[in-house]
Amino acid sequence: MKKILIALFVFPLFAASQNPIEDSLFIHKIAVNILSSDAAYNNLHYLTKNIGDRLSGSPQTYLAEQWGAQTMEDAGADNVIMQECMVPHWVRGGTDNATIIYKDKNSNQQKYALHILALGNSVGTGISGLHQPLMRVNNFDDLEAKKAEVRGKIIFYNCPFDDTLINTFAAYGKNVIYRTSGADRAAKYGAVGVIVRSMSNSPGNYPHTGSLHYNDSTKQIPAAALGLDDVKKLDTLFDENIPVACSMFTYGRMLPDTIAHNVIGELKGTEHPEQIITVGGHLDSWDPAEGANDDGTGIVQSIEVLRVLKALNYQPKHTIQFVLFANEENGTRGAKMYADEAKRNNEQHIFALESDAGGFTPRGFYFDVSDNTSMKKINSWKSLFTPYYGDRFQTGEAGADVGYLTQTPQAGLAPDSQRYFFIHHAATDIFENVDIREMKLGAINMAALIYLVDKYGL
Amino acid sequence: MKKILIALFVFPLFAASQNPIEDSLFIHKIAVNILSSDAAYNNLHYLTKNIGDRLSGSPQTYLAEQWGAQTMEDAGADNVIMQECMVPHWVRGGTDNATIIYKDKNSNQQKYALHILALGNSVGTGISGLHQPLMRVNNFDDLEAKKAEVRGKIIFYNCPFDDTLINTFAAYGKNVIYRTSGADRAAKYGAVGVIVRSMSNSPGNYPHTGSLHYNDSTKQIPAAALGLDDVKKLDTLFDENIPVACSMFTYGRMLPDTIAHNVIGELKGTEHPEQIITVGGHLDSWDPAEGANDDGTGIVQSIEVLRVLKALNYQPKHTIQFVLFANEENGTRGAKMYADEAKRNNEQHIFALESDAGGFTPRGFYFDVSDNTSMKKINSWKSLFTPYYGDRFQTGEAGADVGYLTQTPQAGLAPDSQRYFFIHHAATDIFENVDIREMKLGAINMAALIYLVDKYGL
Question: Domain spanning B2-89+256-456: which superfamily?
Answer without folding.
Answer: Zn peptidases (3.40.630.10)
